[in-house]
Amino acid sequence: MIEIFTTGGTIDKVYFDALSEFQIGPAAIPDMLRENNVLVPHRVTQLMRKDSLELDDADREAIRAAVAASDAAQILVTHGTDTMVTTGRVLQSIPGKTIVMTGAMQPASVRASDAEFNVGFALAAVQTLPAGVYVAMNGMIFDPATTVKDRAGARFVAES
């Protein structure tokens, strides 16, 4: 069983009308998995609905506590990209689990989103990687301890 924790971020943003900004909506992943006929046993738990720039140390501790308490050995965390590596570093204190974090540069609700690809890639990664914490974005696997978000390039890169 893969445990999927959602925390919000761009992947869950929705656009209500032409006069509003994107807001964090309900977790997009349950519909995404159903629509793509994902059959791997999983359960989804929504931990919070926040932009990752709004996450604080207490939120990160809540995420860490939920992951640590889960009976699953394989954990997928959807998270906003701006502070994904910060949370990933906090999760590195959890032994014996494969924890993969992913998100999207564009909301799952828009046509040109990378959300579905990233979630599918992360689901494969969590089933095949050894225990540890990883960031799975845009077809690449990163170690959160040595990774940064390149905002200008809209991607993640290893620190040099």
TrEMBL record:
Domain L-asparaginase N-terminal, first and last residues per copy: 2-151
Active site: residue positions: 10
Binding residues annotated for substrate, in chain numbering: 52, 81-82
Domain of life: Bacteria
UniProt cross-references to SUPFAM superfamilies, sorted A to Z: Glutaminase/Asparaginase (SSF53774)
GO MF, one example: asparaginase activity
InterPro entries linked to this entry: Asp/glu_Ase-like_sf, Asparaginase/glutaminase-like, L-asparaginase_N, L-asparaginase_N_sf
Family annotation (PROSITE patterns): ASN_GLN_ASE_3
Protein name: L-asparaginase
Native source species: Sphingopyxis indica
Upper lineage: Bacteria, Pseudomonadati, Pseudomonadota, Alphaproteobacteria, Sphingomonadales
